[in-house]
Design brief:
Blueprint: H1 3-26, H2 38-62, H3 66-83, H4 88-110, H5 112-115
């Protein structure tokens, strides 16, 4: 395995996990668009930002234990799919990236020894 492939397999789930969390976090900004003041909208923002914060915490834990990220991201994708069966476009936009990141974490975990080997 070349050095470039190792770097890609090591870093892609981490970077994409952060990007997915940021993508979901953008939806929390909706709380400020309801004509409320900052202080009034803050609790709603925090509630809507909690999924993104959970994903960021999962990425942080998965930095060391990739299998955790694989299981959590795939489980969240399955849970989201099960709760929104009538909205295929939502499933593709939310659960799709979650599943991809989870799969990448599992691949990274599977090849852990090779990826962390010094060249």
């Amino acid at each position: 395995m070349t050095s470039a492939v190792r770097k890609l397999m090591l870093w892609s789930p981490r970077i994409l996990g952060i990007l997915v969390a940021l993508f979901l976090g953008v939806f929390a900004l909706d709380a400020f668009g309801e004509g409320k003041g900052f202080v009034e909208a803050l609790p709603g923002f925090l509630i809507h930002a909690s999924p993104a914060l959970v994903l960021l915490a999962t990425v942080a834990v998965s930095w060391r234990w990739e299998w955790v990220g694989g299981l959590v991201f795939i489980a969240l994708a399955a849970l989201y799919t099960a709760t929104t069966l009538n909205h295929v476009d939502w499933i593709l936009a939310i659960a799709g990236p979650l599943f991809v990141v989870g799969s990448l974490f599992l691949v990274s975990w599977r090849h852990r020894k090779e990826l962390h080997a010094r060249s």
